[in-house]
Each structure stands twice: as structure tokens, then as C-alpha cells.
Amino acid sequence: MKHLLTALLSLITISSFSQIKIENFNSDKLNEKRELVISLPASYEKNPTKKYPLLILLDGDYLLNPFLGTLAYGAYWDDLPEVIIVAISQNKKNERVSDCGSINETTAMPEGKSVAFYDFIALELVPYLQHDYRTTDFRIIAGHDTTAAFLNYFLYNDKPLFNAYISLSPELPLGMEEQIPEILSTLKQPIFYYLSTADGDVKNMQERIQQLDHKTKEIKNPDLNYKFESFKDASHFSLVLHSIPSALYQIFAAAQPISTIEYDTKIVTLKEGYVDYLKKKYDIIENSFGIKSPVRINDIKAIEAAILQNKDFNELDALAIIADKNYPKSMLGDYELATMFEQKGDNPRAVRYYMSGFNKEEIADLTKDMMFAKAEELKKTFAKKPKIKGKVGQEAEPKQETPATDIPVTEEKKQ
């Protein structure tokens, strides 16, 4: 009963971050209906123009909840983007083996039902999801043991269907540990590849996975983003819970907010170009994942801090443009300009922008009271003080002496 209550509570928590729906997809390739569990992000209905990366889960029956939990947690802290998850059910009549385990012993390539399952994903499922749901062109596929090995076959095309591969303790067909590194070394498009094993895996399986890792680490291909992990004191099944957060944070590292480490090692150390760094960061997010999102306020503040620390105050002008573009109704852009003029000693113009921001919406830690107080404080530095004569303590103006003349003094005047 206790375990059931825990499970129900976790589902309630997860459901607050997403919308779950079940579809029975009629596949011509499989000649059957296949159940799909589709998780839409919490913002899907609220933001009808936003598109989301797509995550396809093999072994969806038991991989959905751990992936969903990690993504919900990451999205809550704005560490991971929202993602559309499609979990393929494979729990009837040992479907996962017939779907992904029909491999020819001679060619080590799929045959029979596994070919049909491959075509179902590539030719039916992905096109359907792209048509009926708002997905970006960034696609991830994940699987465990048998299905983790099968997902590698999507790399065998000249233009791989998926951009990221999460292979959890794969049961590799003969020769795959040699073939995958060769393919990864010749990639012509950016690919993320995550591979894991554990002490609790079958020893023969561990050895072949480690061979795959050893050869992949030797690859010098700038288009490959690769990560391998071997977990100690973990079983073949518990490694899944260790791997999922690590894999997702690897894939979406570029989309994360500016961290303390990123600030200290990559931003504040720049001699110039702080705003350009911010622009490039969000260009990478859009170009890599298809995610169009406002520049985070905290990221703007991080760049502001670097500018102030390095006293490159003119860059606050460009930062104000970004602030106005992303938060046009807020006081953020005016605050950046006011800060720039204040730091440059132009207090009258600083006051003008503090007061301009006072009339706009508050944002983050910027308030109307703060903007007004800053303006009033600076006004004191340039207000003219009236001269009031006759007051105690005021110095009298010096007397003007009668100017001397050049007229000579006569003897008569002397008398």
C-alpha cells in the first residue's frame, strides 16, 4: 500500500508538469495497432506557437516515468527545456525482443519484424508526430539493453533521423562495437551520443561496451558530442536511473542558464564582447534544438555583472537593446541605460532613464521604488543651489576697489 501511494503521488506530481495522453497508432508497417503514451509539456496549450524537441522512448513501458521525472524536475529549475515525449509500448508478448532483436547473425542487420519496426518509426511515427504536434527538428531516441542496441541502426543512414542517442547498457549485435565508431567518425552533422554500463552488467556485455567506448574516444570529429559512464555498485537496471539525468544534461548543456562556472571561466574573463557572448549562446540554443525562447533575465543580469566588473560600460547600451526586445513592457532596458550613464558620470541622463523605467512594469528585483530612489539620489548631485545673501555663515562678496587713474596729481590738489 505504501509503494502504491508513493507511485500515485509521483504521478500526480509529474502530471502537474505535463499532459499525458494515450493513442493507439494504426501501423501499416507493423500490420497492427501500437499503443503510444504521449507526454505534452505543461506550456503546450498555453503557448500555441511554441515548438518542442521530440524524445522517442523504446521500452516506453518502464522508461517513461524516469525520463518524465527528470525532465519535469529540470524544467522546474529552468535547467532543461520542455520536451514532447512519445513512449512506445513494447510489453505485450515480449514485443521488445521481436521489435528490436530480430538481427541476422551473418550481416548483424535487422531482419523480419525488426525491419518493420524500424520502418514504423522512421516512415510512420516520426512523420505523424511532426505533422500533428509542434515538434522542432531536434529528435532524441533512447532505449535499454536490446532496444539500446537497436537504436544505433538509425545512425547507419547518410542523414541520421535522430540528433541524439541515449544507449543504456546495449546488448550489442556482433561487430557493432566496431561499426558504430566508424560511423561516428564520418558524421557530417552534429550528433549527441550517450553510452553507459555498470558493474552489475553481464561481464561479456561490459567488455564489448567498453571496447565501443575506447574506439569512440579516439574519434576526432567536431560534430560528435560523446559521453560514456560506467557506474560502480549499480545493477543492469539501476544504471538507468543514474544515466538518464546525466544524458539529458549532456545533450542540453548549451541550453542551460549561465552557471557560476560558466560565468567565472568563460564570461568574466573576456576582454570584450560580453553581449556578443550572450547572443551566440541563444543562437546555439535555437540552431541546435530549434528552441526559440526569451533571453533569461538572470542571463542578462550575469552579462551586466561581467560588464560592470570589467568597467566596459558602453556595452550596457547593447544589453539594453536585448532587454527591450525580450521584455518590452518592463523597466529592464531603461535600467541598463540608466546604469550605463550613472557609471559614466552622466547623472542627468541617468535620472532620465531611471524615471522612464519608473513608468514601466516591474521585473525580477527591479521595482518602481528602487528606480525612483535612484533618480532622487542622483538629482542631488547636479541640482543648482540658490544663492541667498545675508544669511549667517555666508561669506560676503569681496568689495570692488576703485580703479586707479592715470591722471597726475597736481600741487593744487595736494594742498
Question: Can you tell me about this structure?
Answer:
With 415 residues, the protein is an alpha/beta fold. The chain has two domains: 14-255, 3-Layer(aba) Sandwich (Rossmann fold), CATH 3.40.50.1820; 260-379, Tetratricopeptide repeat domain (Serine Threonine Protein Phosphatase 5, Tetratricopeptide repeat), CATH 1.25.40. The protein is 46% helix and 16% strand. The protein contains 16 helices and eight strands. An eight-stranded mixed β-sheet has the order 1-2-4-3-5-6-7-8, sandwiched between helices. Helix 2 crosses helix 8 (239-251), helix 12 packs antiparallel against helix 13 and helix 13 packs antiparallel against helix 14. The longest helix is centred in the first third of the chain and has 20 residues, at 113-132. The N and C termini lie far apart (130 Å). Mean pLDDT is 90; it is low at 1-16 and 390-415.
Outline of the structure:
With 415 residues, this protein is α/β, with parallel strands linked by helices. The chain contains 16 helices and 8 strands. It folds into 2 domains: 242 residues, Alpha/Beta hydrolase fold, catalytic domain (Rossmann fold, 3-Layer(aba) Sandwich); 120 residues, Alpha Horseshoe (Serine Threonine Protein Phosphatase 5, Tetratricopeptide repeat).
The amount of helix comes to 40-55%
Could you tell me the CATH topology label of the largest domain.
Answer: Rossmann fold
What structural category characterises the helix and strand content?
A: alpha/beta
* Beta-strand content bin: 15-25%
Secondary structure tally: strands = 8
Tally of helical segments: 16
InterPro entries: AB_hydrolase_fold, Esterase-like, Mycobacterial_A85_antigen, TPR-like_helical_dom_sf
Protein name: Histidine kinase
Keywords: Kinase, Transferase
Organism: Flavobacterium laiguense
